[in-house]
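Kindly go through the entry underneath: sequence plus fold tokens. Please state briefly how this chain folds according to its tokens.
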Amino acid sequence: MVPTVHGRRLGKVPYVELADGRVQGVVSSGSAGERVYVSSVSADSRTLSCATNNNRPCGGLRGAPCKHIRSLIDEACRHYGAERVAAYLRMDAGQDAKDALMGLQGPVEPGPTGVVFTRFLRYLSYLEHPGTTAPIPEMHWFPAGRSA
């Protein structure tokens, strides 16, 4: 596990990850409390993707990052550090990693909305498990403590 750089702000971006060659996650809508957006930036082609959890495209995504992608990148930088996020996206950003990330441009293509949202919901379901010290089989991948 890699330690976080700063604590997370879960109200705006409840889920962010560096996975599958993308910075991706779930971003809350600024206008409708029940709506969320699944946003991503691809490392290979810098492809931008943003759509609601119902696969409706984001109206603000037009070749430059929409506010949801900007929030996602901001939270990824807060969580992982701007240098690590830039390196994951294979950007040569140097000292100004955060500025380079916020200036991303790229083609718009539909992303893995369903996969990312389903993963988010599955992780949320773990919060509903009653507290126990017994092993939970579906969480065998999660590190339980420090190794010697």
